[in-house]
Design a protein that fits this description.
The complex is a heterodimer of chains A (about 475) and B (about 375). Chain A has one domain. Chain A is built from 14 helices and 16 strands. In chain A, strands 3, 4, 5 and 9 form a 4-stranded antiparallel β-sheet that branches. Chain A has a two-stranded parallel sheet with strand order 1-12. A two-stranded antiparallel ribbon of chain A has the order 2-6. Chain A is globular. The relative contact order of chain A is 0.18. Chain B has about 375 residues and is mainly α. Chain B folds into 2 domains: about 200 residues, A middle domain of Talin 1, CATH 1.20.1420.20; about 150 residues, M75 peptidase, HXXE motif (A middle domain of Talin 1), CATH 1.20.1420. Chain B has a two-stranded antiparallel ribbon. Chain B has 14 helices and 2 strands, in the order H-H-H-H-H-H-H-H-H-H-E-E-H-H-H-H. Classes of the chains: A alpha+beta (about 475), B mainly alpha (about 375). At the A-B interface, helix 2 of A face helix 1, helix 4 and helix 9 of B.
Chain lengths: ~475, ~375
């Protein structure tokens, strides 16, 4: 009797196995889902909010004070700054020249900006770093004399914006083994240069505003771990080097490992944030007490009222930094799906995972206890890699050469479309989707790209589906 | 042996029972939810109609005043602005789920953006030539279209339009410690007796921005009219658990993130007297009360219109009453408590955050609790977030 009762179950089990075996995918190698890998930001740093607010959720385990910082920091991140004098003194001091009115106008919903869709569209989240050949006293880029280190294309009333930048694209065609594709290469035209011509040999680097989740976790990955991944002279002969950038840290007044920014040119979120307030919005802080103006502009705009000295006080700046540090990473979706696991296997097989390092551990430093000792899956090594001439901006930034870029983390990638309604990627937003981003890889990424082009349509789709699950 | 056999059978029959009963239960649940959503849509429409109508009165008063500026006309405009804030403040309980008001291309930013940049609009302390009104070279004409186009040019958020732009033009900068802004009505007087410059352009700006406000309010109102595609989609094509989820998201976001956080905690935390939404008119406390009233309206399914008539029907509360009375009672008790705390905050808000900040704390705490309890009820009702 017992036996007969068991039979149906037994048969069911067999049928499952058989069905599984018939499925094509099972004949191909797949990766296994690593335990708890859906928790991209670790036990504390992961959110299961997959709505358009997915990038704006706080990590778990903040104390009451940190929760308060999150609220106030969010407000100062999101709200517009206004020109001085204003009735609201804590938020005045915008400009005189700037790229944006708030952090959130470029990092909309804590997400990622997109490049202009047409030559007539104004920049909104894309900016241009400027320099001339040479180095400053700390080994950083030498600012362009008439415009400084960054081109500000907006200005408050009574002040001239620095320039107007128009973006257009030319098609670049290529071939898969089994088909063709077309990419688009950006072309920039700098018009209405209101402060004179650019100096001889001037260089520019387009930079798009990336999404914010997980920055605080990356900040507390231990430096020795990152350095252990570096392979500057490619000692292991895999064609992939990976090297650290060392940049000037204005707080400690010494050179430190760079972690943030497209070229790993910022050592900390505090400096990244204070730098962006200064360069992008025209807000002074104790770290950067002067507005981002050239000597000529300083003279011309000496009578423009400022919003205090500094315009953003330390206490509030630290709350904005704490806000950014505490943004959780969305969990993986469909991480056990068979196609996704096939894509994960390919990601490793094509050596994508060599630079886009899947897993690491945060250290036990940093002010926010909840971010410490988390097992995270950011898909970056935080190191510089040569990405070839096509992606090169040809503008060195500390130790980063004109063709080196920092591996951007891939966590949250699949939710950019939900949060920001687009899928544009890479430092200048030229890639219209993840596949185009892969196809733009050159230099150390050329071999992975070539292998991707040789994949069949099914495997290409599987790899993209894996990326979409991040 | 017997029991071993019996167990799977029992299990099977247990499993099948709910399945049999399920279909009818599901239908009943769905019908009950639909009745709640229908009443919600009626309230939303009525509230936006009232917002539009009050803004229309404001626009009419502004037109009268600009044609023939007087102290009385100016006072009438200010009163009409304060009146117009009441229905709109309640309607903020329909935000935060990507509905017509704040979908990707929704007009929320054009209607209610704050902070707004005074310098971009008109003169400010020490800069008599500031603002578009005084920039005749760059902006020779002032029309609704010019302002609408400008909004796109510098930021995705409005810095030129909305309630608070009108507020600034009516009250002026609030530089006083004790009272609201004190713009003289003569800023709009052309010719003899006029103050500041470009008075006619200031009048045109005020009219244009009031006209734009009306247009934008009409667009959200119309999205909720019977027969409109949004309303139809919301009531007929959206799964009821998803639609309920939107209502709870909205309630939770407004009470915790926006009201307790952005509008109250941040003002307290920064101790900036004017870091408050209606800083020119010192109407912030009324804004807070109206936001809270909006939350209550949605949960209890009752809205009292400007003309005193009442739109009422099946509500989240009545749904929760039969599903999870305990949780519903908790929400209702927290609503009552929060209202008492908010009513106990002395005005004006900009004075209170400086001189009596502790009086604001209980309301903030209570609004946060309220948000968590909304989430509890939402889950109990099967809402999908």
């Amino acid at each position: 009797m017992l036996l007969t009762m068991k039979h149906p179950f037994f048969n069911l089990l067999c049928a499952c196995l058989l069905l599984g075996a018939c499925h094509e995918k099972d004949t191909l190698p797949v990766a296994v889902a690593t335990e708890a890998e859906e928790f991209s930001g670790g036990a504390n740093g992961t959110t299961f909010d997959f709505s358009e607010n997915a990038f704006g959720v706080s990590v778990k385990g903040l104390n009451a004070a940190e929760e308060g910082y999150f609220v106030t920091g969010n407000s100062f991140f999101r709200n517009n700054w206004v020109s001085a004098p204003s009735s609201v003194q804590s938020i005045d001091g915008l400009g005189p020249v700037m790229n944006a009115l708030s952090c959130g106008s470029c990092h909309f919903k804590d997400g990622r900006a997109k490049p202009p869709g047409s030559a007539d569209e104004a920049l909104n989240g894309l900016l241009f770093r400027l320099s001339v050949p040479g180095m400053d006293v700390h080994g950083g880029p030498l600012p362009e004399p008439n415009y400084g280190g960054q081109l500000q294309d907006k200005a408050i009333q009574q002040v001239l914006p620095e320039a107007r930048v128009r973006v257009s694209y030319t098609p670049v065609d290529g071939k898969f083994t089994d088909g063709t594709y077309s990419l688009r290469n950006p072309v920039y035209s700098f018009e209405a240069l209101n402060y004179g011509p650019m100096a001889a040999g001037w260089m520019y680097s387009p930079r798009i505003a990336p999404q914010m989740p997980g920055l605080g976790l990356l900040e507390v990955v231990s430096e020795s771990d990152i350095l252990a991944w570096a392979d500057e002279n490619d000692a292991n002969g895999d064609g992939i080097s990976g090297r650290p950038n060392y940049v000037w840290d204005a707080t400690s007044q010494q050179s430190r490992l760079g972690r943030f920014g497209w070229k790993a040119n910022q050592p900390s979120l505090l400096q990244q944030t204070a730098g962006a307030f200064n360069g992008d919005i025209g807000i002074t802080t104790n770290l950067f007490p002067a507005d981002h103006l050239t000597a000529v502009q300083q003279l011309a705009y000496a009578n423009i009222p400022n919003g205090g000295n500094p315009e953003l006080e330390d206490a509030t700046l630290l709350k904005v930094v704490a806000y950014m540090q505490s943004l959780a990473v969305p969990a993986r979706r469909n991480h056990q799906d068979a196609t996704v696991l096939r894509g994960k296997w390919l990601f490793s097989e094509l050596k994508c995972a060599t630079c886009h390092r899947p897993e690491m551990q945060t250290g036990s430093t940093g002010a926010i206890a909840a971010l410490q000792n988390q097992r995270i899956f950011p898909y970056t090594d935080l190191l510089l890699h040569d990405m070839g001439p096509e992606l090169a901006d040809n503008r060195p930034d500390y130790l980063a050469s004109g063709s080196e870029w920092r591996t951007p983390p891939l966590w949250g990638l699949g939710l950019i479309k939900t949060v920001n309604n687009h899928t544009f990627l890479l430092h200048d937003g030229r890639a219209r989707n993840a596949e185009e981003a892969i196809l733009w890889h050159g230099g150390e990424g050329a071999s992975s790209r070539d292998q991707y082009k040789q994949l069949g349509a099914g495997d290409r789709a599987a790899l993209l589906q894996f990326l979409d699950s991040l | 042996m017997q029991s071993v056999i019996a167990r799977p059978l029992l299990l099977l029959s247990l499993l099948s029972l709910p399945f049999l009963g399920c279909k009818k239960d599901e239908d009943d649940t769905d019908a009950a939810r639909k009745a709640v959503l229908q009443n919600y849509a009626n309230i939303v429409l009525a509230n936006y109609e009232d917002s539009y109508d009050a803004a229309k009165i404001l626009k009419d008063k502004i037109d009268l005043f600009v044609a023939n500026p007087s102290a009385q006309g100016f006072a009438d405009c200010k009163q009409a602005w304060i009146n117009a804030r009441n229905p709109y403040g309640q309607s903020e309980a329909f935000r935060f789920y990507g509905g017509p008001i704040d979908a990707q291309d929704g007009p929320e930013g054009l209607i209610n953006a704050w902070p707004m940049d005074e310098n971009f609009i008109d003169y400010v302390e020490g800069i008599p030539t500031a603002g578009l009104i005084n920039n005749t070279a760059q902006y020779p004409t002032i029309t609704q279209q010019v302002l609408a186009d400008l909004n796109e040019s510098i930021s995705e958020e409005s810095i030129f339009t909305g309630y608070h732009a009108i507020e600034f033009l009516l009250w002026g900068q609030d530089l006083s410690i004790s009272g609201p802004g004190n713009r003289p009505y003569t800023d709009f007087v052309t010719g003899a007796g006029g103050t500041a410059s470009n008075q006619a352009r200031r009048g045109l700006y005020l009219q244009a921005v009031a006209g734009l406000l009306l247009e934008n309010l009409a667009s959200v109102r119309d999205a909720w009219q019977p027969g409109s595609s949004y309303r139809k989609d919301f009531l007929e094509n959206t799964a009821t658990d998803v639609a309920l989820g939107r209502l709870f998201t909205s309630l939770g976001e407004l009470s915790k993130g926006e009201l307790a956080g952005e509008r109250m905690f941040v003002a307290l935390d920064t101790k900036d007297q004017e870091n408050e939404h209606s800083c020119f008119s010192d109407n912030t406390l009324a804004d807070i009360k109206m936001n809270f009233l909006g939350i209550k309206n949605v949960y209890l399914g009752t809205y009292t219109r400007t003309n005193g008539s009442v739109v009422s029907g099946p509500s989240l509360a009545s749904l929760a009453e039969t599903t999870d009375k305990t949780k519903n009672d908790l929400v209702k008790a927290t609503l009552t408590e929060t209202e008492q705390y908010i009513n106990a905050i002395p005005g004006p808000f900009d004075q209170t955050i400086l001189n009596n900040p502790n009086s604001v704390v209980p309301a903030i705490t209570s609004l946060r609790t309220l948000s968590d309890r909304f989430a509890d009820v939402g889950f109990a009702l099967g809402a999908k977030f």
